[in-house]
Write a structure and sequence with these properties.
The complex is a heterodimer. Chain A is of the alpha/beta class. Chain A has 21 helices and 10 strands. In chain A, strand 9, helix 13 and strand 10 form a beta-alpha-beta unit. In chain A, helix 6 crosses helix 20 and helix 10 packs parallel to helix 12. The longest helix of chain A is centred in the last third of the chain and has 23 residues. Chain A is globular and about 85 Å long. The relative contact order of chain A is 0.13. Chain B is an alpha/beta fold. In chain B, helix 2 packs across helix 3 and helix 3 packs parallel to helix 4. In chain B, helix 1 links the parallel strand 1 and strand 2. Classes of the chains: A alpha/beta, B alpha/beta. At the A-B interface, helix 4, helix 7 and helix 17 of A face helix 1 and helix 3 of B.
């Protein structure tokens, strides 16, 4: 059977003798079956569809190059993925309470959501922050808020992921300072900062500075952390938001890895060794509904990144070639209609992430298309992960879908198509340029619009939205953020400003400005300012004065 | 010949989720309307200024950050101040049902949540102008 020529012939015969006569009587449900990235799906996959490179080269063994089957030799037989629910809202006090609850329920790592003003470098009393304080995450204005956020949570015992990008250096500095106050040496801190600015220009929108200044801040963080926080992941290169913005699975892989390439290039230019900082790079992917395609996507991304690090950047340490990633289930797949259905969607998506070998996972709450999740819905989301981990048995062997003719074929195809995109981006002069010129944004928007049109034509069925509709009861409670929080936060900030040593703050900001005008590493200056209780807004504005602000190229 | 409908699609506030705004903008354009898209991070002032400058017939606001109550109130007040409060304002985003009711009382013409067909949005805008 292993002779591909013979197999191909037998398959053709089978199609002719068995399939075609049947199709004349009973046509298939669709004229054509396609992947989400518009590639044909055959009726059946066989060993002839396995990677032409052969098992050793294309798949290999878990924990070994090219890591197709996983980054650790034992995967979930050794340790389960980190169950990490993204949470944060209102004030530091309230978020602290939710974190302690989640930890008490068996969650194994924290993931902090910041409000938009914190993410974009505005204090809560800034006019730009009006109406947004504490809304999509917790409001952090100064080290004082950060101390409250982690009160009673030992930073040497939990790993913390912070979704923070243009102000990542400031929040990381605050985290270090809180650790020091708890008596935890920075070298003991574990966790991740997102710190991925390129995808903010592409998809998520919380940029502040122009690309060059942003890239400098990122490499400054890489450099500082390689010396002082060796256990901390200094970037989480994120396809999540690219996918949410409308990209398909191939674009998600391609644009994320293209961002990764840009960061590696910029770090090498700054004199860092990719064999060392390569180990601190982590990734963040989405998991959507197309189950087998998503599993293949994770495997393809892992293999492609390993090849890039080895062949393109000449990395020799295998650990620096490993693509380790966090996954979040797909927010944009959740429906406001019949919201309980989302529990099922999330379960399949989470299962795909686990079969794809994720290192950590956030499962969405079923009510997120309606508003902020409640404690009940967050608990179901966490329980979904626990059921997959403990009851389904998929964690008992490594890469259980490896060798599936279809999944291996999809893995190859996604890798190949993503590589083609990478070539195109190189031809355009690299990712920073491709983003500045709007090429990436245009590609994503095209896919997003076509997908929406498919839904409108009912070529893509969304249960409860364009088919299987039912009359609905108006919906239960959702979490509301009390508008009084904004006032409270502003008052707290006012008190702090009166109490702190304002001369020390002024001095620290002056030093920071001087450093920003030069070429020194900015991180120690930011850390110094944070420790004097300079606010996030003050530090950001100091840098705005020097670097200016980015204005988006409006693409339609 | 009838004048083409002119629509301002705006992203007020700090919210960066622009997929919905852009997809709706493309659909309106494909439905024959002229669309001005503001891009991210517009203040209420900037939105109303753009509406005046471009002399649009309709304003669409896209907000997924939860800041919709405050933002809509500001935009509506400013429109009244500038004497353009007869122009219908549409809102799209993650808007809880009771907030949607509140917004309509405030003077928002229609609120579109996730899953709304593009055709429904196009029809609603045309309907608002024919009135």
């Amino acid at each position: 059977m292993n002779n591909p020529e013979r197999l191909r012939k037998v398959k053709e015969e089978w199609k002719e003798k068995k399939v075609l006569p049947l199709l004349r009587k009973f046509p298939e449900r669709k004229n054509q079956f396609k992947t989400s990235f518009d590639s044909d799906i055959d009726i059946l996959y066989t060993p002839e569809d396995l990677p032409p490179d052969g098992y050793d080269k294309a798949l290999g063994f878990p924990g070994q190059y090219p890591f197709t089957r996983g980054v650790q030799p034992t995967m979930y037989r050794g340790r389960l993925w980190t169950m990490r629910q993204y949470a944060g809202f209102g004030t530091a006090e309230e978020s602290n309470e939710r974190y302690r609850y989640l930890l008490s329920q068996g969650q194994t790592g924290l993931s902090v959501a910041f409000d938009l003003p914190t993410q974009i470098g505005y204090d809560s009393d800034d006019p730009m922050a009006e109406g947004e304080v504490g809304k999509v995450g917790v409001a952090i204005d100064s080290l004082e808020d950060m101390e409250i956020l982690f009160e009673g949570i030992p930073l040497d015992k939990v790993s913390t992921s912070m979704t923070i990008n243009s102000t990542a250096a400031i929040l990381l500095a605050m985290y270090i300072a809180v650790g020091e106050k708890q008596g935890v040496d920075p070298s003991k801190l574990t966790g991740t900062i997102q710190n991925d600015i390129l995808k903010e220009y592409i998809a998520r929108g919380t940029y502040i500075f122009p690309p060059d200044a942003s890239m400098r801040l990122i490499t400054d963080i890489f450099e500082y952390c390689s010396k002082k926080l060796p256990e901390f992941n200094t970037i989480s290169i994120s396809g999540y938001h690219i996918r949410e913005a409308g990209a398909d699975a191939v674009q998600e892989v391609a644009f994320t890895l293209a961002d990764g390439i840009a960061y590696v290039e910029s770090a090498i230019k700054a004199g860092l060794d990719p064999n060392i900082f390569g180990k601190r790079l982590s990734f963040f992917f989405n998991s959507h509904n197309n189950f087998l395609e998503e599993i293949a996507k994770f495997r393809a991304a892992r293999r492609l990144w390993a090849k890039i690090m080895k062949d393109r950047f000449g990395v020799t340490d295998e650990k620096a070639m490993m693509l380790r990633f966090h996954t979040q289930t797909g927010g944009s797949t959740l429906t406001a209609q019949q919201p309980m259905n989302n529990i099922i969607r999330v379960a399949f998506q989470a299962m795909a992430a686990v079969l794809g070998g994720t290192q950590s996972l956030h499962t969405n709450s079923y009510d997120e298309a309606l508003g902020l999740p409640t404690q009940d819905s967050v608990t179901i989301a966490l329980r979904t992960q626990q059921i997959i981990a403990c009851e389904t048995g998929v964690t008992d062997t490594v890469d259980p879908v490896g060798g599936s003719y279809y999944v291996e074929n999809l893995t190859d195809r996604i890798e190949k198509l993503a590589s083609d995109y990478l070539q195109k981006i190189d031809d355009l002069g690299g990712m920073v340029k491709a983003v500045q010129e709007g090429y990436i944004q245009k590609e994503i928007l095209k896919t997003a619009y076509n997908y929406q049109l498919k839904i409108e034509r009912e070529e893509q069925v969304i249960v409860g939205v364009n088919q299987y509709l039912s009359d609905e009861n108006p919906k239960k409670d959702i979490l509301k953020i009390d508008p009084i929080i904004e006032e409270k936060q502003i008052n707290k900030l006012g008190t702090l400003k009166r109490r702190r040593n304002s001369q020390a703050v002024e001095e620290a900001l002056k030093e920071l400005k001087k450093a920003a005008l030069g070429s020194e590493n900015l991180f120690p200056f930011i850390l110094n300012a944070v420790k004097c209780y300079a606010t996030l807004g003050e530090i950001s504005n100091t840098l705005r004065d020097v670097f200016g602000e980015y204005t988006e190229a409006v693409i339609l | 010949m009838m004048r083409r409908l002119k629509v301002l699609v705006a992203k007020p506030g700090l919210d960066g989720h622009d997929r919905g705004a852009k997809v709706v903008a493309m659909a309106l354009r494909d439905a024959g309307m002229e669309v001005i898209y503001t891009g991210l991070r517009q203040s209420a002032d900037e939105v109303v200024k753009a509406a005046l400058q471009e002399d649009v017939d309709v304003i669409g606001l896209s907000i997924l950050s939860g800041a919709h109550m405050r933002i809509c109130e500001k935009v509506l007040n400013l429109m009244k101040e500038k004497g353009i409060d007869e122009k219908p304002v549409f809102v799209g985003g993650i808007i809880p049902a009771e907030d949607a009711l509140e917004l309509k009382k405030m003077g928002i013409f229609e609120v579109f949540g996730p899953g709304t067909p593009l055709k429904a949005i196009v029809d609603s805008i045309k309907g608002a102008i024919d009135k």
